[in-house]
Amino acid sequence: MRMLRCLVAVALVCGLAGVAKADQMDFHMVVLDPFATTPIFTTPFQFTFEPCVAGQLPTNVNGSYMGCFSGVNRTGNDWAGMELSFTNTAALGSQPAGCALDGSTDFYQSATCSLTPDGSEYFLDFTIGSIPNNGSFVIAEDGVDPSDFPMVSATIIRTVTPEPGSIWLMSTGILMVGFFFAKRRWPVVRAPRF
Q1: Has residue 15 been placed in a domain?
Q2: Based on the structure, what is the number of domains in the chain?
Q3: pLDDT tens digits in sequence order for the chain, 194 residues long
Q4: How far apart are CA 31 and CA 163, in angstroms?
Q5: Residue 81 belongs to what domain range?
Q6: Does residue 84 lie within any of the structural domains?
Q7: Are 60 and 93 in contact (CB under 8 A)?
Q8: Alpha helices (H) in the chain, listed in sequence order
């Protein structure tokens, strides 16, 4: 009976709190990115560049980047490296590939950018760093109109989560089974008789 009275009292307090609202309008607030980000669930993935918009690149990035791609790593793994590859087109004109790293805003500390010897494809490798799972990133290019830039294919080097060795798993399993059977065989400890 006492419990029922407490529940009725709680229900009255909660009900009266709802009546105290003077305004029926709910208040909502959101903070939105000024640019669209593409969630990446599987790798490898492909993308095209769009014109960069204000606020898409950090303010301390030097250069006049024309094309940007914004993404979010949703693969469930950290990315230890990234290889970008794309076909050499007339818009690119076999110009030398450059990978500018300024160190303050880059996810990766090392980059190797090259054109294949036959001049047909570019390979840009970024390593020594990490894009964390659920981390946002921007890939930017300058020198070519984004609408003329070819489709880019990105291959990811994933951070490997170390798994326990199979011998350790088997050992701990056997140990637990041994404890179970040993406990069943131990005599029950009795209080000493006086």
Answers
A1: no
A2: 1
A3: 676 676 666 666 656 555 555 445 444 454 444 567 889 999 899 999 998 887 777 776 766 778 889 999 999 989 999 999 999 999 888 888 878 776 666 888 888 888 999 999 999 999 888 899 999 998 888 888 899 999 999 999 876 555 666 777 777 777 777 777 776 665 555 556 66
A4: 39
A5: 38-53+65-158
A6: yes
A7: no
A8: 2-19, 166-185
Distance (Å, rounded) from C-alpha 22 to C-alpha 94?
Answer: 68
**Closest alpha carbon to 149 in 61, 43, 68:** 68
Domain contains 49:
yes
Residue type, 120: S
Pairwise CA distance, residues 27 & 150, whole Å: 45
DSSP one-letter code for 165: -
Amino acid making up residue 124: L
**Domain-located, residue 3:** no
